Amino acid sequence: MNKNINPKQNRRFGRTDKEKLLKQNSIVIWMTGLSGSGKTTLANCIASELNNCGYLTQTLDGDNIRSGINNNLGFSEDDRYENIRRISEVSKLFIDCGVICINSFISPTEKIRKMSADIIGKENYFEVFVNAPLHICEARDVKGLYEKARKGEIKDFTGIDSPFDTPSKPSLEINTEKLTIKESVSRLLENILPKISHNN
Questions:
Q1: The domain made up of 22-133+163-196 is a member of CATH 3.40.50.300
Q2: pTM
Q3: Which of 71, 121, 158, 195 is most exposed by smallest CB count within 10 Å?
Q4: pLDDT, tens digit, for every residue of 93-120?
């Protein structure tokens, strides 16, 4: 880090003050899983439910990140790492603003997920393993990405020619093959609401 940069927050109106203003505790809900496992669908449903309950949220996913702040990155191992690093730093800014940040990223390796948790802060990081077997993810693939990957038209595609490390200790695992969207949302809300409820 440049010695001339001193990233201090405004202590007169810090995170605690913003959380009190918003009447919520900020947290990052980080959804990891294969493409097609249901991460984005679940994230959007959770955001909608929380918004209806009066909570302020921000969702981050590949579409709004890779088309903007990370549009210069590819899918090499180094670029995937940098992609998640930047997302984690952005998430940390939302946390400091008192906002509940809901992220949907494959984040395929334990190394990448640990780095993310370290940046955000383990106490602020709620990891959700959105679990679905590969054949189910392929069946849901409306964009045809898996088919292109199997034909060699897409390289380094997670689950085909790039590995996915199953999370060893996620905060929560949701099996979207066995649970409906409604059941998945209900289970996630049961775990999230006690963490974001601001009783002061």
A1: yes
A2: 0.89
A3: 71
A4: 999 999 999 999 999 999 999 999 999 9
